[in-house]
Amino acid sequence: MANTQRAVFLDRDGVLNQEVGYIHALEDLNLIPGVAEAVRRLNQANLFCCLVTNQSGPARSYYGIDHVDALHQRLTHLLAVEAGARLDAIYCCPYLSPSAGGVNPEFTRWSTWRKPNTGMLVAAAWDHHLDLQQSFMVGDKATDVDMARNAGCRGILVQTGYGDRVLSGDYQHHAQPDYIARDLADAVGWILADESL
Ligand SMILES: [Mg+2]
């Protein structure tokens, strides 16, 4: 089957929910205003909405993988109740190399899934017949934009989360996004204005 479906890949922290560091309490995961409505617009445009998130908490022994699953259940619940929005798939990388701080042996390894590597995007493309070159990645870090470019997607940097600090040069490194958006709603407006859609 040809890879013909177009996707919008979404980072989690700082794009969908407020960036508050490692989230130990479920109630500390809260959506950024306008996000649920923006995701629903993507759903209505028949773009495949795919979460792609690095979550190194389990590798750092901050909490278990079941806690990450519970956070994603809360995230999908909030999207649904606020605007009837849905994520079509969730890809999460819990792995971290020892040199980067991994300590729990179950999750401590170098992984092609960890951004800015492209493993999550490649897996999603295989699983769901996605055309990466016709797809978009929305993130708040330079590493999100790097992953988009590494995979041939268009990369959008939002100014929520770490985005403003990336742009001012005091977080990570210089990024070369295809578009800089105020927030996810602005990013979705830019995506839906694409004439090829
Ligand atoms: Mg983020």
Automatic annotation (TrEMBL):
Residues with site note (Stabilizes the phosphoryl group): 53, 115
EC top class, as a word: hydrolase
Binding site for Zn(2+): 93
Binding site for substrate: 11-13, 19-22, 53-56, 114-115, 141
Active-site residues, record numbering mapped to chain: 11, 13
PANTHER family reported in the protein's UniProt record: D-GLYCERO-BETA-D-MANNO-HEPTOSE-1,7-BISPHOSPHATE 7-PHOSPHATASE
Designated name of the protein: D,D-heptose 1,7-bisphosphate phosphatase
